[in-house]
Amino acid sequence: MTAGSSTVAISSIRPAAAVEDPQYSQASSGLSDAYELLGHYGVLSPAEVWTKAAAHAAWAVLLDDDSAEAHTSLAHAKSAQDWDFLDAEREFQRAISLDPRYATAHHSYAMSCLAPFGRLDETLQQILLAHTIDPISSIVSRDVAMTYYDRREFEAALEQCDRTIEQNPHFEAAYWTLGLVQEQLGDLDEAAACFQRAIQLSPQNPRMRGALARMMAISGKREEALKVLSELRDLAKQRYVSPFEMASIHFALGSRDEGYEWMAKAFQDRCFELVATKVDPRFDPLRDDARFRRLSAQLGI
């Protein structure tokens, strides 16, 4: 589904869900999840989706306090949007106690609550449990690879990416993750090829194009990286482009001052990508920088 079709799909199902049964908790929970995903994938800005996501999640819990789906949606909003990780963890644990077989609860708990704190042993336990419950989910399979990546177990991450792509060869996020892994393994040409494949599958996705620009900068192809950076600036006039992507490119170019300016904007926007900064290997070169520590402190972890 393309970015445009995602937006159309959500805007079209919302009235139908409300008209059919406005008291149906799972419909509100599903809408919350849909809005959150639009923000996570950069289709819409966080400001456009977070209030709606939080409101639908809270309404879902009010409608049915015994719904694992509702508590998971609320927990995810609290962690990814509010950065209230302690309250989010209570909600995730409540959801899991209500339905231990709800894979999304384990998945979201792992990636948006445990991983941000660097609790990577627990993260791995939860994401593997989600994968066991729902072995055909591409995003869960991909996030198993992301967890290995965060743990610096790059060979395991590589193997998991390959399994995810074998299962779903059209899933651009798996190629993006594979590119990140290849970068850490030092195979920059292969990393660039992965990002190019991701762009072929999702041409207008700023995350994929930003990753390629960053890889070009790391590879010493400065002019090519600047060209993609310029294209992203032009794209930002038409649709939302996360400041996080702009920051990552500037850091790779060695332009730290500009990188921190864009990172500050990312924090202002409360971009979802920020929750992983504590564990993401891409930020290892910045960890001793006081500016990075000051920004990271805003997450409250």
Major sheet attributes: none
Mean pLDDT: 92
What overall form do the CA principal axes indicate? globular
Structural class: mainly alpha
Q: What value does the Rg take, in angstroms?
A: 19 Å
Number of strands: 0
Calculate the terminal CA-CA distance, rounded to whole Å.
34 Å
Structural key phrases:
disordered N terminus; mainly alpha; 301 residues
Describe it.
With 301 residues, the chain is mainly α. The N terminus is likely disordered. Among the domains are: 96 residues, Alpha Horseshoe (Serine Threonine Protein Phosphatase 5, Tetratricopeptide repeat); 88 residues, no CATH class.
Brief rundown of the structure:
This protein is mainly α and 301 residues long. The chain contains 16 helices and no strands.
List strands and helices in order, with pairings.
Layout: H1 3-20, H2 25-40, H3 46-63, H4 68-80, H5 85-98, H6 103-114, H7 120-133, H8 138-150, H9 154-167, H10 172-184, H11 188-201, H12 206-218, H13 222-235, H14 243-252, H15 256-269, H16 290-297
Helix pairs in contact: 1-2, 2-3, 2-4, 3-4, 4-5, 4-6, 5-6, 6-7, 7-8, 8-9, 8-10, 9-10, 10-11, 11-12, 12-13, 12-14, 14-15
